[in-house]
Amino acid sequence: MSDEAPEDDLDAYVGLDVRAAENRAGERGWGMVRKLSPGEPMTMEYVPSRINFVLEDDVVRRCWQG
User: Fold this and answer.
1) Residue ranges in the chain modelled with pLDDT below 50
2) What does the alpha-carbon distance between residue 17 and residue 44 come to, in Å, rounded to a whole number?
């Protein structure tokens, strides 16, 4: 697993179902995928190779690196 983020368009994940988003993240080279519910507490450490999804009804509503 690389410590660097791949070149990717994070906005392209918004609106994808969780399986498609996870598959895309794997294909693009993200080292980790973190899935969260709206308002769910999370740790604040920054991990450059991690992509974060906020999911509602198994659809990505928000996406960011770290």
Assistant:
1) none
2) 25
Q: What is the pTM of this model?
A: 0.89
> What contacts 36, CB < 8 A, 6 or more positions away?
42, 52, 53, 54, 55
Residue with tokens 């659809």: 59
Q: Are 39 and 24 contacting, i.e. CB atoms less than 8 angstroms apart?
A: no
Alpha-helix residue ranges (DSSP H) falling in 1-66: 18-28
